[in-house]
Amino acid sequence: xxxxxxxxxxxxxxxxxxxxxxxxxxxxxxxxxxxxxxxxxxxxxxxxxxxxxxxxxxxxxxxxxxxxxxxxxxxxxxxxxxxxxxxxxxxxxxxxxxxxxxxxxxxxxxxxxxxxxxxxxxxxxxxxxxxxxxxxxxxxxxxxxxxxxxxxxxxxxxxxxxxxxxxxxxxxxxxxxxxxxxxxxxxxxxxxxxxxxxxxxxxxxxxxxxxxxxxxxxxxxxxxxxxxxxxxxxxxxxxxxxxxxxxxxxxxxxxxxxxx
Amino acid sequence: xxxxxxxxxxxxxxxxxxxxxxxxxxxxxxxxxxxxxxxxxxxxxxxxxxxxxxxxxxxxxxxxxxxxxxxxxxxxxxxxxxxxxxxxxxxxxxxxxxxxxxxxxxxxxxxxxxxxxxxxxxxxxxxxxxxxxxxxxxxxxxxxxxxxxxxxxxxxxxxxxxxxxxxxxxxxxxxxxxxxxxxxxxxxxxxxxxxxxxxxxxxxxxxxxxxxxxxxxxxxxxxxxxxxxxxxxxxxxxxxxxxxxxxxxxxxxxxxxxxxxxxxxxxxxxxxxxxxxxxxxxxxxxxxxxxxxxxxxxxxxxxxxxxxxxxxxxxxxxxxxxxxxxxx
Lengths: 260, 328
Description:
The complex is a heterodimer of chains A (260) and B (328). With 260 residues, chain A is an alpha/beta fold.
């Protein structure tokens, strides 16, 4: 479960950024940031407001184009023109507002934009959706993640905040081939629901996917992260582990009161 | 989505769950209610002859309401419905009266209507202008332009092909016009696309949450464009049906088509905020309006009362929609 670093065989790096810069006119959002996500780990990204967390994530998922620098997926340079490119490359993102159509049912939301068509002429000529298969796959995905829902036919708006988050995470897990990026997944949740979502994130790691977790919630971060990437002033200030550093250490690095 | 399960009785646990599960159940009850009242008060109401007339009177608004439903599902609104349809009748009528082939003339008129829909869609999706303003502008432009072209007056269009949709056929003792059959066919076809294909699923997604639709990779602008294009095509077909009912091209016709089509959609349970509702509801809504007008006319009540009752129904429908949204 926990990540062991072996100095002799370096761990496989899934996603990497080298010296990425992003400027808007005179404003520098990213001042040459490095980033490294290893296979099978949960990497938390923390930082004060304006430290460049979301700009970094947007650069990694193709939502914006870096001014300079390099991004590598499995060691090969990539140039995402948009979020869709990143998705095709196997990177799934769980957005803070979840990106759901509330009036549509759970299965429809899981497959939104990636609907399955019926086999044969019905699908190819008549463009008929395979609703049955989408429901079955949705049910399987939710039970694989051990996430309980009242019914897969429910509209998303009928679910609690935690359940909605569960559906969003399940969608990412269902389609991600390499890694899942989550933006503040527990921000709007109560204690019990937060616990459920953290459990979901662990089960995604168990399936062999790497996870990037953006969070303000230090106890959550220390609960599940293998490593913590700390942003400060548009750069990576340090990467630490919950074993070697305390929450106070991390906050001190975030605010510039200490170095790693 | 749930409209698919609207008609067959289900063994769901509670009545409440069943009503929520089938959004067109409420409008259907209203329709049945009106039918029962009119049938009890006037024996002529249920005569097959009268029912056939109700369907014929519903055809134009019923078909226009299909396009209106698509636009409203994307959280838009179309105020150019009637004007585009009139454009179709005038283009087809002028060409035929000039001696052109009627089939080609009608086909060209449908194309012109489709282009008008495309123009509205282009302004909405390309320039991101509010649909309300875009279609209001098109309404003004078309109304003025059509009066200029036809020098203000209506003209007769006498051609067997253009009026073919008004011809009747017997279906088990029931007299139907081809226009009525075309209306039901259009409902079936568009229902299929809306409920059984990716295209329809994305219409709902865009109406529900356009930002989410964009994030999951749906080409939102292109999709909106396709919705307005299909709506324009449907208004063009409605123009053919209109010529079948009255063989006249009149630039001043269909003044109430906008409100009537919106009424049918809203009474049918489709939300003006987009993303909820569907075509089964709209068909029921159009029939409610048709039944109401027919029943009150049979009872000898002043036509003004028809507009009054319809107005009340619209406000009740929108209020119910608003309340159900607030609960969520």
